[in-house]
């Protein structure tokens, strides 16, 4: 693999960028009535429209060539065959095995992982079924009504987001809670709202050593034992999801109630594994399998579709186009679907933890820009807040718009109004408002002369701001599975093009070490020294206030 900027097509793309950078999307649409048809694709119930991007046929041809020259097909084959492509952690990357519904053998170190994957799924099914049918009861015999997942990062964001996204498919008698923050306020609020006799805690941690999760788990355990007055109650109220059986045993959870996964499942890629246990408890096995099927369908598409029609590849290439050729450093996810309110947070981790890297696979500093700053939120709310910058700010921020054509909550005109806003925003970002249009509007409002001229510059919208629209007929487990796998593979393809390892996270590990060193100093168990003056001053401020 070579440095991306050394690939022959990279220079061609620079030249092409210079040639088309001044083209306006408004004019590209006006000149080509078939633009939407050519630059959009259907995938099951999903419609991906990328026609509002600053591209021509030639751009797509060159970008596809970039994918070939960066060996995307070869790397995709290595991913799916269980090769150790996470080289800094010496691990395979096999979240695709977790949703391998065709059950094709996938080998890691010469061993087929599928029998184990299927066995854990069956273990999860039995447990979820018992909870949902009221067969698994609390220590005092009460049915489980509250499920509290305690985990952080990859052991929190995925399951939380999916449970919210698929709420219409969830069991309405179960209340799902997700505790991640070590700030005592988080667990205190949740515990205050739960009845210990009918609460189940799922302790989700790949390593079972993460300080925040362990601290929250011990607090929950102490609360339960105190409230029910019996240590033995832990067995009926705590289960674990982890790769660390020893850690689980030490915590006091019977390993029969531990749901296993493996080191080849990265945290941010783990919702398809036993980390998805809260999802299965809430939605049931059938819907969980549908979620896996949706992702599997996207996996198969990604593995086999030609690059120019391959959705994860197309989205990845468009991202690279803006980041490396237009100099866009940020991308925004705008969801017009309240159930997807946590999707931007989930995608932020997926993208920024995977591709927020500056050292390439050969250990050299990268020579191009890599992963973007990804952010976003509920689109309709954002319109009344941060969209100003998207329309008239100085940054180019490519946007993803997500919206369901059909709402599960058909209340009056709410849904058409929501959709109209989504469509209008994507259109306005693209077409903008010319000086002539702004002038005509002001004249219509009765302005003229100096007053009009003074106001005019503020009323002009440059437009030409690109977006992808990801619309779906209605949100279903299959659609969500396909959507998430689409984003996962997009991130992977970009990592391949930038020649970085998308599957390690040394920046996250750093945080885990640092806090442990300062904790005893903050608690006064050891004098604080060896820090810079700022850290020292802050530690002393906190100690003085305790
Ligand atoms: C994900 C990251 C990180 C991780 C959390 C929790 O890819 O590695 O977000 O998921 O730090 O780690 P544990 O699951 O080990 O508690």
Protein model, in words:
Helices cover 49% and strands 11% of the residues. The chain has 24 helices and 13 strands. It has helices spanning 8-20, 25-31, 35-38, 57-69, 72-80, 95-98, 114-132, 157-165, 184-192, 211-228, 234-237, 245-251, 277-283, 285-304, 311-326, 343-355, 379-383, 387-392, 414-431, 435-444, 449-455, 477-498, 506-522, 533-545; strands at 40-43, 46-49, 107-108, 111-112, 146-150, 175-179, 199-204, 238-242, 258-260, 330-335, 373-378, 399-404, 467-472. A 6-stranded mixed sheet has the order 1-2-13-12-10-11, with helices on both faces. Helix 4 (57-69) crosses helix 15, helix 8 packs antiparallel against helix 16 (343-355) and helix 15 (311-326) packs across helix 22 (477-498). It is globular and about 80 Å long. It starts with 7 loop residues before the first helix and ends with a helix. It binds glucose-6-phosphate. Glucose-6-phosphate is lined by residues 152-155, 205-207, 210, 213, 266-268, 353, 505, 508.
Beta-strand content:
5-15%
Q: Which sheet architecture does the biggest sheet show?
A: 6 strands, mixed
Which parts are unreliable, with pLDDT below 50 for 5 consecutive residues or more?
Answer: none
Morphology: globular
Strand order of the largest sheet: 1-2-13-12-10-11
Distance between the termini: 54 Å
Helical stretch tally: 24
Give me the secondary-structure category: alpha/beta
């Amino acid at each position: 693999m070579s440095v991306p900027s050394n690939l022959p097509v990279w220079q061609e793309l620079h030249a092409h960028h210079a040639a088309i950078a001044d083209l306006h999307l408004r004019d590209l649409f006006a000149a080509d009535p078939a633009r939407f048809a050519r630059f959009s694709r259907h995938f099951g119930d999903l419609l991906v429209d990328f026609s509002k991007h600053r591209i021509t046929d030639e751009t797509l041809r060159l970008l596809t060539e970039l994918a070939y020259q960066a060996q995307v097909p070869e790397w995709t084959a290595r991913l799916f065959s269980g090769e150790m492509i996470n080289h800094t952690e010496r691990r395979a990357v096999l979240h695709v095995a977790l949703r391998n519904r065709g059950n094709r053998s996938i080998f890691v170190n010469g061993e087929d992982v599928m029998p184990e994957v299927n066995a854990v799924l069956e273990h999860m099914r039995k447990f979820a079924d018992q909870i949902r049918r009221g067969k698994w009861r609390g220590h005092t015999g009460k049915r489980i009504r509250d499920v509290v997942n305690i985990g952080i990062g990859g052991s929190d964001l995925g399951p939380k987001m999916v449970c919210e996204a698929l709420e219409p498919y969830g069991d309405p008698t179960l209340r799902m809670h997700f505790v991640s923050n070590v700030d005592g306020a988080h667990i205190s609020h949740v515990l205050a709202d739960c009845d210990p006799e009918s609460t189940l805690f799922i302790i989700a941690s790949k390593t079972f050593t993460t300080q925040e999760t362990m601290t929250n788990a011990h607090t929950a355990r102490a609360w339960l034992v105190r409230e029910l007055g019996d240590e033995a109650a832990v067995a009926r109220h705590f289960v674990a999801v982890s790769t660390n059986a020893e850690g689980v045993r030490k915590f006091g959870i019977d390993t029969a109630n531990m749901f296993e996964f493996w080191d080849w499942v990265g945290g941010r890629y783990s919702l398809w594994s036993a980390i998805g246990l809260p999802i299965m408890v809430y939605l049931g096995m059938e819907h969980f399998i549908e979620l896996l099927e949706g992702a599997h369908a996207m996996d198969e598409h990604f593995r086999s579709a030609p690059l120019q029609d391959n959705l994860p590849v197309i989205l990845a290439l468009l991202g690279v186009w803006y980041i490396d050729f237009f100099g866009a450093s940020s991308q925004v996810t705008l969801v017009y679907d309240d159930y997807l309110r946590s999707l931007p947070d989930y995608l932020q981790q997926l993208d920024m933890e995977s591709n927020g890297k500056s050292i390439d696979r050969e250990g050299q500093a990268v020579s191009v820009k890599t992963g973007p700053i990804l952010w976003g939120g509920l689109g309709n709310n954002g319109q009344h807040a941060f969209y100003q910058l998207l329309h008239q700010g100085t940054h180019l921020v490519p946007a993803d718009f997500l919206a369901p054509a059909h709402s599960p909550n058909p209340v009056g005109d709410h849904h058409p109004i929501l959709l109209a806003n989504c469509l209008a925003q994507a259109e306005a970002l693209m077409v903008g408002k010319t000086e002539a249009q702004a002038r005509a509007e002001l004249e219509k409002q009765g302005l003229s002369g100096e007053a009009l001229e003074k106001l005019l510059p503020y009323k002009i919208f440059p437009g030409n701001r690109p977006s992808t629209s990801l619309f779906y007929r209605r949100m279903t487990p299959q659609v969500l599975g396909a959507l998430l796998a689409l984003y996962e593979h997009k991130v992977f393809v970009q990592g391949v093009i930038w020649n970085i390892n998308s599957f390690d996270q040394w920046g996250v590990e750093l945080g885990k070490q640092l806090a442990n060193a300062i904790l005893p100093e903050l608690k006064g168990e050891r004098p604080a020294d060896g820090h810079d003056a700022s850290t020292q001053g802050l530690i002393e401020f906190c100690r003085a206030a305790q």
